[in-house]
Amino acid sequence: MINLQPTDKIHDEERQGEALVVDAPLVRNGRKLYIESYGCQMNFADSEIVASILLDQGFETTGDYKEADVVFINTCSIRENAEQRVRNRLSQFGVEKRRNPNLIVGVLGCMAERLKSKFLEEEKLVDVVVGPDAYRELPQLLAEVESGHKAINVLLSREETYADISPVRLNGNGITAFISIMRGCDNMCSFCVVPFTRGRERSRDPFSILVEAQDLFEKGYKEVTLLGQNVDSYKWKGNDAGEDAAIEVNFAQLLEKVALVSPDLRVRFSTSHPKDITDEVLYTIAKYDNICNYIHLPVQSGSSRILELMNRTYTREWYINRIDAIRNIIPDCAISSDIIAGFCTETEEEHQETLSMMDYVKYDFAFTFSYSERPGTLAARKFADDIPEPVKKRRLAEILLKQQQTSLFRLQHFVGKTVRILVEGTSKKSDKDLCGRNDQNAMVVFPATAGVEAGQYVNVHIDRCTSATLLGTIVN
Ligand code: SAH
Ligand code: SF4
Ligand code: F3S
User: Fold this and answer.
1) Domain ranges of the chain
2) What is the pLDDT of residues 287-308, one digit of tens each?
3) Which residues, including other chains, have CB under 8 Å from residue 444's CB and lie 6 or more apart?
């Protein structure tokens, strides 16, 4: 069986339940924190902020919730099944809580924000519920729990970006890291819960972003990914440090500033929105070798009528125009997508339009989902979720099959060529192999060679491929 989804961690909206651990803090309070994260990469980045705040309080992290004093679960609401997984996990924590009544269980992130105090009513074992903009309050909230009360803070903010909190890097490979450049989303796509769980869009101070990138590079990191729900609408207004004049920084300018940190620091970013991605961004990518030729540009549907119902604010033609611009300005750019099968009222012809869009773009990879109605969203209020489950499943299977074919088509292009890759570590399948990604974000696996280690750039000749991975050998 060929792996349909790439082993890419940037957009994997439903990464599941990874426990995150770091070294001990400088001053200990003798207590241990276990934190498990679900959902998109922004949630994982937030867990690093949370760990940083609690490490400052003297907590140590642990990878075993059975030895923890505080268990946090950082949750995702994007689809029904994402929430179900969290509930199943909570019932496992409940078993532990009955054994150890002093254990504090906290729910963080998007489900906390969506369900608010209902969570405390529904899940009796939960002690504390904290939304994504309230993590600075965690020490006070934990103190409240210790004094015998349940605690909750789900206030959303128009300003919070945690710009001054240096995230502790949890379970990283020491080579690639994520940097949050903005929070929230103002787009209101009709299917999407994110604007409700993450609040209004705000951009982070570019100087703090540059300090973080520089600091990572000095610590040996070789790749940063700039994260936001809609990076193209990044906009910061303020004063340059030490200067009086007001300045404005847009995403293309931010990208350039980060690229200039060092030519040896690769820069990636995610997610781009088809309505906002500008030629200025494309020219900036083309100008700098270290900005990777890879754009995640979710289409969602190939039908203009469905796109309108989705409130995506672009048409099929507009999207195709953006794809053509990418191909013209950055000829070897990889493009990936998110696609939803079976949105409200989608006809068979409209589904075919999604497939023909996939034929046109020939995505390098795509994340594909069956539409899942989310309470409170525009679509839930306005449209019936009227495509029967078996039809959604069949359409999704057709989309997956098409993507499997185009992924293979794209990867086959690299066979026989030599690509430059950043070594990330040993391959998951065999410690005799190393792995890393090329500029276009394709995973490359090759036999380990003496003297070659994580963090180095090497040239690899591609001998063959599967639909998810390139296989090759190091060349000088
Ligand atoms: N900000 C990003 C996407 C964030 S959510 C963007 O605008 O593209 C990641 C993906 O989850 C979305 O692109 C969409 O394809 C999918 N998704 C979001 N809500 C969904 C829902 N209700 N049902 C199915 N898939 C959904
Ligand atoms: Fe959701 Fe749309 Fe915002 Fe993406 S752009 S997070 S899909 S509302
Ligand atoms: Fe999920 Fe929230 Fe991210 S809903 S996809 S964790 S922003």
Assistant:
1) 12-153, 176-412, 418-475
2) 999 999 999 999 999 999 999 9
3) 419, 421, 435, 436, 437, 438, 460, 462, 469, 470, 471, 472
| Tokens read off for 162 | 């945690």
* Span 448-476, pLDDT tens digits: 999 999 999 999 999 999 989 999 999 97
CATH ID of 418-475, from 3.30.450.40, 3.10.450.50, 2.60.120.260, 2.40.50.140: 2.40.50.140
Mutate which of 110, 201, 229 for ligand 2 pocket (most atoms within 8 A of beta carbon): 229
Residue pointed to by tokens 């600091």:
215
| Closest listed residue to residue 374, CA positions, set 347, 394, 354, 344 | 344
Candidate of 10, 44, 78, 229 to mutate for ligand 3, largest count of ligand atoms within 8 Å of Cβ: 78
How many angstroms does the Cα of residue 201 sit away from the middle of ligand 1?
16
For residue 270, which ligand has an atom nearest its CA?
Answer: 1
Is the CB of 340 within 6 Å of ligand 1?
yes
Q: Which amino acid is at 361?
A: V
Res 1: pLDDT: 26
Amino acid letter, residue 188: M
Token readout for 153 is 């803070």
Amino acid of residue 262: S
Annotate 252-277 with DSSP letters as a single string.
Answer: HHHHHHHHTT-TTSEEEEE---TTT-
Q: Binning pLDDT at 50, 70 and 90, where does residue 11 land?
A: very low
